[in-house]
Amino acid sequence: MALTRPGSPPERPGPPAPAGAAGAAGPPAAAGHSGMAGQSGAAGTAGATGTAGAAGTAGATGTAGATGRGRVVRPARLRPTWLAAALAVLAGALLVGLTVGAARLTPAAVAGEIVDRMLGRPSGLSETGQAILWQVRAPRVALGAVVGATLALSGAAYQGVFGNPLADPFLLGVSAGAGLGATLAVAGGLPGVGGGVALLPVAAFVGALVAVAVTYLLGRSVGGRSTASLILAGVAVAAFCTSVQSYVQQRHADTIRQVYSWLLGDLSTVGWRELAGVAPYVLVGGIVVLAHRRLLDVLRLGDAEARSLGVHTARVRLTVVVAATVATAAAVAVSGLIGFVGIVVPHAVRMIVGSANAAVLPLSALVGAAFLVLADVAARTAASPAEVPIGVVTALVGAPFFALVLRTRRGELR
Amino acid sequence: MFRPRPPIGAARLPLLAAALAVALTAACGGSEPTSSAPSPSASAGAGSFPVTIKAANGPVTLDSRPAKIVSLSPTATEMLYAVGAGEQVSAVDDQSNHPATAPKTTLSGFKPNVEAIAAEEPDLVVASDDTNGLVAGLGKLKVPVLLTPAAKDLDDSYTQIEQVGAATGHVAEAAAVVARMRKDIADLTAESARRPGLTYYHELDPKLYSATSRTFIGSVYSLLGLTNIADKAQAGAGDYPQLSAEYVLSADPDLIFLADTRCCQQSAETVAKRPGWSKVTAVRTGNVVNLDDDIASRWGPRVVDFLRTVSERVSKVSPAASPSR
Q: Given CB atoms, is B18 within the 8 Å cutoff of chain A?
């Protein structure tokens, strides 16, 4: 691992990171999530390693990253071997996802069916078997991959934009806004629009975007361009939305189950239609975020330095946040609130490839897709033929794993 | 929780707690020791007071015939009106929608507010769940509370109807209601009406939550000899499991009963449009039955109506529709 130790000087030429950048990383961890004294420490160190990783990109020469003590910073680009490994993991996960499920289709039968389809041969499965595989299981696996990729990529992007390892795609109120939208739709509808379960995805999507827009306007009005004020505004908006949601929910306690299953994340009843609905937003958002991955590395030098290199820091941040938010809002609108993917996957990827966004972002998307497909396999097999909420699985697996990642990284940084 | 995401972490806790409470009361309510019969003193036709009822929440004593009853449970409301105590009811909760003449208020049975209930000056409160310290709170105000928790089988229903009758001075009417229910149900589930071998899926919401045979509603289906496809899930997921779509398709039920027609606008048409569901026997043979959510989720006298709907549909399933099973 090419991570700096906290005691060592930042591995880049030039002055230490400007106070603004450090300030952005500090306050949210302390203010937004009190009671986690250890976290601010982690935030600080990760910030330091971030600059180290960025140095490679910005310097663009092999020597810029090397220190006098002989340690070499990994080049900040996407190595083909990593890409191949991540693609292999994803392919494996997709295959497992297609072969495992509550309906008893043997792996051989599934494999045979896939080959038959590819070759255009008549199917060896019964009509019900075909329907289960292609209309129930396949779209679920595909949507799991899309949602996982979106959440992990957005999480990595948010962490890059805010310079805060605790940032996740729900930071600015996406989840609270979507939750409020979903609740309003289910609990009797919106004025003039009507309501019902069918409206839930649209309402969740709109709610998420409105909440983040309010967060942005509020953050700007109180703190100009500071990311800290944006994050604090997100906390306020999320708290407000959540309280309204709880109130509406309580007034309509008979609809609690419909909202509840969405809140915990649910891929159980999705089809190709849902996938087609979210694909445009997710694709465009994902491409925009990925296109900015190197600029995010430059941002880690600090605002002043990035500007001196000709980067519009505010514009880059806004573009990435908007793209990641739209993609996330579309994903959660159909999948519900699946927690932890946006935090645990990028950190796991960083543990292996270092913290350069140029590598972390695309790899997070691939690993996130694989992670959520496998989590969904667990969700539908653990209590088969019943379902376990996928959000429960991701947090149950993700939380200990995240703790392990933190422990490992801290040990290395000490 | 280590994770800093605000919504689920702290702010959603009340919501989760509420959901958990609903789940817990649904799960535990039936296991409360229910009394066998109204107290002996209630044997006279019109009832006599004072009377003590051995209810789910222990002995409940009424010194005189109640004239201002508050019901916080839709099922209890239906029971009160069925035994002829409707004129004594002064307020019912926001979910009590049957009969339509019941004096509906904004009172909540899910999150009861003792002060708001006391403001109605009731001399008897009937509720299905003791949430928010309801019984203790009203006890301090010397208002008797009769708990009628979610029934786990028909015998629980009969007992509760008799208790409601005894508490309101309608012992004879309650006995008649129970006798009529018993007879109707016996007729509807006669040997000739039973169709063992047919499988069914009872849907609580479009996310495929269902109810096993251990639930009240499941026990009623069992009277017709039907096999519940959700029973295979109870080991891993309890009595109200969320089934996998692919499991429902591969289980291929002969009948689908939708108890989510009101809440979630589901119907035979929407079910047929779900991905892959057009191949299911029940859909192919037109045996997707739209139920009334309310009737299918309550354990009052209208359970007979529910059973009649189910029985009529079951009797129409042609033997050929159920393949060699």
A: yes
